[in-house]
Amino acid sequence: NLPDPQPAPRRLQHFQDTGAIVYRDNERGILFSARCGPPQGFTAHRNTTCCCDRLTFCPVSGTFALAKHGLPLIQNAEGGYKMRTELGNVVLVDGRGQLGDHAAPMSCPDAPYGGEHIVEASYDPKTGHGHVQMQLARAYDPELGITGYTREFVFEPDGRIQLVDTIAANQPRRFTWLFHSFKSHPITGTGNGAFTIQNKNERLRLDLAQSSSSLRHAIKDTLVVWAYINENEGEMFQQLEFETESPVRQVRVEFVLS
After folding, report:
1. pLDDT digits over 158-186, tens only?
2. What is d(CA 237, CA 40) in angstroms, rounded to the nearest whole number?
3. Going by C-beta distance under 8 Å and a sequence separation of 6 or more, which residues neighbour residue 17?
């Protein structure tokens, strides 16, 4: 028998039809995933016409999750009887979610797809650098006037992950960035826009590295309207949020996860 092939110690995979990204770093135990595209995937979206075949969670294009050594540190909050964009690790515009964000119970029937997509997903095994770029402007209702929204993830060889959002609108808007974790995973501010999220012996540091506009931050409980079935017996979620102090037409924000 041939021995099992050893996977590369660090790898980025782009599942183009489902609009999914998976990055792993075995040395540091990092597992990262993100999505951008129609909820059912591109092929299914083109070939299904019945709303029952298009049931989905809620519109959260651009959301991501991160775990270390199998312990989740950032993840979507669970849904229930009120499925909303703000359960994802995404950006709200004037407090509003993405296209089709109607707070549907249990699942969203035939959530609309605006055309958001992954532009690039690349990884250089020689340098250890990876890069993902998403175009998210069309994930939002046109009446919000989002004229450009690029979300980028940059994977550094030392394990750091940069999240860079560049957003433009046709009039001043209030932008809110959300990061979720279970409430049993303490979120602690350490000063100068830095926070840690702790799950047992694993810790994630989140730094607000740069912002073209002043941001305020807060740690809040996440509202989850529980259904009769949930994955973790109704465990509470919390969110770390950053928000522009005043409405702006353009903003560029960089976070570093390490």
Report:
1. 999 999 999 999 999 999 999 999 999 99
2. 26
3. 41, 42, 43
